[in-house]
Prior knowledge:
It is a single chain. It contains 33 helices and 40 strands. The strands form 12 sheets. Strands 27, 28, 29, 32, 33 and 34 form a 6-stranded mixed sheet that branches. The chain has a 5-stranded mixed sheet with strand order 11-12-13-14-15, sandwiched between helices. Strands 2-1-25-26 form a 4-stranded parallel sheet, covered by helices on one side. The chain is globular, with a radius of gyration of 37 Å. It starts with a helix and ends with a strand. The chain binds one RNA strand through helix 10, strand 16, strand 20, helix 18 and strand 34.
Amino acid sequence: MDYNFGEIEQKWQAYWADNQTYKVTEDSAKPKYYVLDMFPYPSGAGLHVGHPLGYIASDIYSRYKRLQGFNVLHPMGYDAFGLPAEQYAIQTGQHPAITTQDNIARYREQLDKIGFSYDWDRELRTSDPDYYKWTQWAFIQMFKNYYDTQLQRAKPIARLEGHFRMRGTENVHAATSEPMEFTAEEWNMKSDKEQQEILMNYRIAYLGDSIVNWSPQLGTVLANDEVSEGFSIRGGYPVEQKKMRQWFLRVSAYAERLLEGLDELDWSDSLKETQRHWIGRSEGAVIHIPLPESDAKREVIDEEDSSYSEAGQALWEIVKNKQLGFKLKRDYKIGDNTVPFVNLDKGVIIAIETDAFLTSEEKDEHIVTQSKLKLGGFRILSFTQSEILADPIGIGQQIKDYVESVPAADIPVSEEIGGDVIPVFTTRPDTIFGVTFMVLAPESELVDQLTTPEQQEAVQNYIAQTKKKTELERISDQKVTGVFSGAYATHPFTEEPMPIWISDYVLAGYGTGAIMAVPAHDSRDYAFAKHFNLPIIPLIEGCDVSEESFDAKEGIMINSDFLNGLTVEEAIKRAIEEIDKKELGYSQVNYRIRDAIFSRQRYWGEPFPIYYKDGMPYTLSESELPLQLPPVDKFLPTESGEPPLARAENWVSEDGYPLETSTMPGFAGSSAYYLRYMDPNNNLMLVSQEANHYWRNVDLYIGGTEHATGHLVYSRFWNKFLVDLGISCEEEPFKKLVNQGMIQGRSNFVYRIKNSNRFVSLNLKDQYDTTPIHVDVNIVHHDVLDIEAFKQWNPEYKNAEFILEDGKYICGWAVEKMSKSMFNVVNPDDIVDKYGADTLRLYEMFLGPLEQSKPWDTNGIDGVHRFLRRTWALFHTNDSFRVSDEEPNLTELKTLHKLIQKISYDIEHFSFNTSVSAFMICVNELTSLKCNKRAILSEMLICLAPFAPHITEELWSRLGNDKTIFDAEWPLFNEEYLKEDTFTYAISFNGKVRYTLEFSADTDKTEIEETVLNHPDSQKWIAGKTPKKVIVVPKKIVNVVL
RNA sequence: GCGGCUGUGGCGUAAUUGGUAGCCGCGCUAGACUUAGGAUCUAGUGACGCAAGUCGUGGGGGUUCGAGUCCCUUCAGCCGCACCA
């Protein structure tokens, strides 16, 4: 009787479905085990042979755990929101929901053929309103909470509001994007809207202005992990930097918990390192670098002055009495200076300059005055007297336009930014005496305030230039660029003046967007100093900074006043103490991780449960959830550039307020899906406490490394937030994580002789001038081309001629990405049809270590298939099923127990490739022993069942069992059967093995030594020399040292 | 530039974790059987050598009685991060 895998696999897949074999319920009598696959995005191309690799591994593990008596949760679903379906919709008008539905159906069909043990009753789709209701719900909670930095957890925003009402910002410990200070009195004076605006800076889900990755082609913003080297990961479109108002998630507040949590996780070191780097904790200090004394503080004293110039008088006629629509004050005293006109709401000064300065002193004084005013946060608009006299009305209009374009009073800048100090973050406070200049990021708010008039133009040119650069150019362009601002800061210890430069090697988004440059000990500062010829002061004894900087954190300090003679480590501590004492700053921990941008200007995503009233966002009530995606006429932005949802009719809340038009990004739906599987049909909450406390978290998570910094960070963040809310009971969502390697394609080539229709076989191609052409791997077997199939494959080759070697056409091959254009895509369905699911499963595992990337090479699959047929043959004699009830002998038991031991160990260590090889060894041995004894075969079947569930079910039932093999018990390994009476020692001389000798297992060392030395075979190697030493390692080796 | 990983037959890989390198499979060679095939079975298969034997885990060096395994160095390939002060 043949091994008819097609029939067997269909039969058992139907049986499992009919009998709900894989349905799982919370059963407190059994220990739980939760095995999760990263759910797929159902793309139009369907699954290729690489996708199931991780699913097969997790399926083996699930089935193994089940056989060991665990209650195993092993669910599957779809990450169904996303760009491809929407792009397809834009092109075809087909609604993404339909495309997605079709793709899911295809995926399901393909998955079912492979015979997975998923509990499909728990299937979920992120695009299903019943599911995304809970994504929206979680967002609302994030909006309603802030992060308490002292308690290190989320707390209701109402609590913070109460604090502000009672005590202002005094003793507030809250993560925020805009540090500010106010008293309770000031808070209570504010309007509701002002209060809401302040609270927005504390919410975990907040609206904020930020420079974002904007893709014009995609018409949306992207998260940092969705962008690589200036291009979008999906689609490869260019990405530019743009300032926009967006929703954010305050992931940065959780930085420390995200970092600490990594320690306890059973993840690969490389993945943990990637996350640590992404979080980027660095300890250091914020130092306040003083600017020269500024007397442009906002102590404005109205002081009428009647000495008007002619031009001033002319302008006054135009601007007085709110003729412009706002008030300009005339002859205002600010600090020591009187300015001609000033608008106090927006902090704009209108300066009138003489056409020509009489002396250079006069000019200098003018510049100093302007700088001081700018330091105070004012904007200055200058006109010369003759300009005003020529066209006072035109100038009036210019003033009007300018003042209106300026945002409302951003003047009372917080004390840290742009008061009289520049705050900088450094991890090397020990190098403070080596600071010879300062550098600001071009985007820094200080640039405007500090740039002196005569540097104005150069600075503006520079900024325009850096803005033009794409992210890619900025990275790849290693040239040193920068411009002097004209301003100076004062060294906090030496009080030396230090020039302030502007350069794009300083990032606006990290630290304070300003640095103190220590060229001797930082390579970037060094390059900059060399390029612009700035001083370099070495600070470490014996270091040579003539060619390059000395970046290592080691050595003894010199040229550093009170730090001299200390080691770097000591100096860091000492410097911070001194900075503290002198109140020049404070120690601080900085994180690289940024808040996640959470808006996408897209259709196919979760709508935000947000409406706007009076320009401020408010959340919908829970009863209004889910807020379903509305129908739209087109899936494109509106003519005015608003997201597609703005096209929806009646896109308003129940009370008639306009709803948010952007949607959530891809990672929203995948952030808490593992919790939903625990309780997928609950319509009262995301997950019930009972279900959550039973399943807790994922014991084993299998998926690709591409999610290392995206999904796996956001998901951990999201879970920690839900822990704070008391929804999730485990601080970490995924205890153990295994990354399966990528399956690459293995392409085949034929070699066409140039300008002909002739093809030459691989090893003869060097004799001709040829072009390699990709050929469909499905018409090539063991690199031999099926010539007839090739002729039919493409009409162009119908009359092709071939130059063969040994009567065959041999193709070349290469490892490439698996893609349609390379004709190297192998479909799992085809493999299943041809060899069966069990063969596919075993072969995918046999290909190599799970975590290793490898090309799909169908060449070895016959070997695995033959193994299954030999397994089948063990149970059959002359075409009929026949097993013996005889007692097994010791040899047979040894073979079996070797297998049990090996397979148990291998599965625990995810070494599935070696398991397959162990099965082959076992079946080969049993075949040569002609063993068909029930006792041996049935236990072997249980071991094989996780790997090849269909054939084992069939044979199991033929053995007379009426329940599924997965209700059996994993066999126990018995060491007794593996005990050997003798051991064969390898006898080596000077480390080289020469012959072997068998000893009984309990022979003692001296006896072995004696026997070896007296053995006739040894004489040849000893050859008259005296053995210096004989090393006998029991059950290992004997080595004679000569 | 920084961080991580990997280098073993013609190919995919294995090696009880410092103890006989090459298990298992593919391919290849020879043979058996045969309504001739991409079927099945048997034997062989790291290289050199008639052989005894010698050489062999990217290269070089070291530790050790003994190294694919540990250390140093160097080369090659892959992946991640990329001016993070």
